[in-house]
Design a protein that fits this description.
This protein has two helices and eight strands, in the order αβββαβββββ. The chain is mainly beta and 193 residues long.
């Protein structure tokens, strides 16, 4: 009887230890570049300097922006997505304004932490307002590890890229060459919001 109890206890202990093992799930193929960011958008000249009145050009302030993997989980592409924050027409309720919302796939180089696209399709939700800004060209996109600062002073990754829109109705009359989107990684801490 002692042998049976000893065998049962050993078997039960083995099952308990085995059931505690966790499976390593792993990340996505774009994990090094994926994230949530707080960004602003400025209207800039060819050199990347804000034009007069170009800082926070759309007047929407600092907004949440996402970078994430594609459905195919490709290591050479990712989505960039402003969650509709730059849809100026809807923000101001003015049908004469364009929809500058960004949701597009860009090509990435994970070793250099860079990204770009050339006249890529804009998948941002169309609305009842003016929607003639379809293609997006992304230039000089880069994620810089530890180059930014949170509100509490701690280091944060930063993101920066330039975007041009096909059929941009405000270009070149408003005097800018492109838009600069820049910001820092979302920390999850209230003190940094």
């Amino acid at each position: 009887m002692k042998k049976i109890l000893y065998f049962a206890a050993t078997l039960l202990l083995g099952l308990t230890i085995t059931s505690c093992d966790k499976e390593d799930i792993g990340g996505t193929a774009t994990e090094s570049m994926a994230g949530q960011w707080y960004v602003t958008i400025d209207a800039v000249d060819d050199s990347g300097n804000p034009i007069s009145g170009g800082e926070d050009y759309f007047g929407v302030g600092r907004v949440l922006f996402l970078t994430y993997n594609t459905a195919s989980n490709s290591p050479t592409q990712m989505w960039i997505d402003d969650l509709g924050a730059f849809d100026v027409a809807s923000t101001y309720g003015n049908k004469a304004y364009p929809n500058y919302a960004i949701k597009s796939v860009v090509n990435i180089d994970q070793n250099a932490l860079t990204f770009s696209s050339s006249n890529a399709e804009n998948h941002a939700a169309l609305n009842s307002y003016k929607s003639d800004v379809y293609g997006i060209t992304v230039e000089q996109g880069k994620i810089l590890k530890g180059a930014g600062r949170q509100n509490n002073g701690s280091p944060a990754d930063s993101i920066v890229f330039y975007v041009k829109y096909t059929n941009d109705p405000w270009y070149p009359d408003d005097g800018y060459a492109k838009y600069k989107v820049s910001g820092i990684r979302y920390s999850g801490l209230v003190e940094n919001d």
